[in-house]
Amino acid sequence: MNEPITKIDPRFSDSDAVATSWDETRRVLETAEIFWISTVRADGRPHVTPLVAVWFDGAIYFCTGATEQKALNLRGNPHVILTTGCNHWDAGLDVVVEGDAVQLTDNDLLERLAEAWTTKWDGRWQYKVHNGVFQHEGSDTIPVFSVTPTKILAFAKGTFSHTRHQF
């Protein structure tokens, strides 16, 4: 992945704020335990739900049951926003990722991702790969999606700054 163009937006930042570095933003993406995904229903209404995901090789990867609302929404509209951060007003960093979700079917990549899930959560999330999807013990097939960011926003709190990482 290419390094993004990083700019602070002074309209929404404290006068003494500096742009959040790409390294700091990427660290939040790599270590986040929960993301919130926003998708669009067929009738145009938003749908928001939490999920676990991994940042891997410049993209966010997530999985969902084939009949879950977010999977149904993605069949009609691939545009998504994933957010992560904290619920503190005066400290922390919130990150918003915009892009399109693309379903993966490459077994080699899925094997690497299954290992990434296992590693990130100390074995609490373990998937097997079969015919281009994940399988979890006792579950049906689980499609896996990637989101390569088109834009990432980082909102620093305390000394407030609004940083845009454009790809």
Search tags:
alpha+beta; 3 helices; Pnp Oxidase, Chain A; 12 strands; three-stranded antiparallel β-sheet; single chain; globular; 167 residues
Write the layout of secondary structure elements.
Layout: E1 5-8, H1 22-31, E2 35-40, E3 46-51, E4 53-56, E5 59-63, H2 69-76, E6 79-84, E7 93-104, H3 107-120, E8 128-130, E9 133-135, E10 141-142, E11 144-156, E12 161-166
Antiparallel strand pairs: 1-12, 2-3, 2-6, 4-5, 5-11, 6-7, 7-11, 8-9, 9-10, 11-12
Domain Pyridoxamine 5'-phosphate oxidase N-terminal: 23-152
Keywords: Oxidoreductase
Protein name: Pyridoxamine 5'-phosphate oxidase N-terminal domain-containing protein
Give an overview of the whole structure.
By secondary structure, this protein is an alpha+beta fold. It has a domain at 5-58 and 69-103 and 144-166: Roll (Pnp Oxidase, Chain A), CATH 2.30.110.10. 19% of the residues lie in helices and 42% in strands. It contains 3 helices and 12 strands. It has helices at residues 22-31, 69-76, 107-120; strands spanning 5-8, 35-40, 46-51, 53-56, 59-63, 79-84, 93-104, 128-130, 133-135, 141-142, 144-156, 161-166. The strands form 2 sheets. Strands 1, 2, 3, 4, 5, 6, 7, 11 and 12 form a 9-stranded antiparallel β-sheet that branches.
Question: Helical segment tally?
Answer: 3
So what's the overall shape? Answer: globular
Describe the biggest sheet? Answer: 9 strands, antiparallel
- Supply the CATH architecture of the domain at 5-58 and 69-103 and 144-166: Roll
Q: Helix content range of the residues, please?
A: 10-25%
* Relevant CATH superfamily of the domain at 5-58 and 69-103 and 144-166: Electron Transport, Fmn-binding Protein, Chain A
Strand content: 35-45%
